[in-house]
Amino acid sequence: MRYWFDTEFHDDGHTVELISIGIVAEDGREYYAVSAEYDSNHATDWLKQNVIQQLGDVQMKSRRLIRQELDTFFRQGGTPEFWADCGEYDWIVLRQLFGTLTDWPEGWPYLAMDIEQWRLQLGAPAFPLQDRGLHNALDDARNAQARWQWLLAYVKANPAC
Ligand SMILES: [Mg+2]
Hints:
161 residues; Nucleotidyltransferase, domain 5; 5 helices; binds magnesium ion
C-alpha cells in the first residue's frame, strides 16, 4: 500500500521536532494529527505565519497516541511504501515517532521514496502549481499524491523517458 506523507516541523539545526503530520493512503484513507508536545510559543515568525496558523481546529495528540494511530493506519493493506516530496526531514520526523532507528517496525521499508528524485530522473518536467494549503501537512500530502499521479501520467505519455 502506498502512502504519501508530509510533516510540518520545527528545525533548529540540531533537532527536527514534529508539529503536524498528514498522510494519504492509496485506498483513499487519510490521517492528520497535530502534536500536543510542540510548544508553538517557541515557533519562529516564519512558522507562526506559514504553519501554526494553518494547523486547523483539531484536538492535539501526544506523540505516543499519534504513533499508536499510525501503527494501526499503516497496517491496513499490507506492506507500506512511503512517498514524500523532498522528504528527507519529514522521513526523520515520521521515523522518530516510532522511536530510535532500530525501533522501526519489522518488515517496513528503510527508505522513503522521493517524488522529487523521480521528477529529476524523468528530465525535470515542471509540476502544475499547488492550488491550496501549502504548509498544511494534509493538504501537502494530498498534493504529493497528486504530483505522483501526475508523474505517472507523464511516464505513460512519454514512454521513452
Ligand atoms: Mg508541508
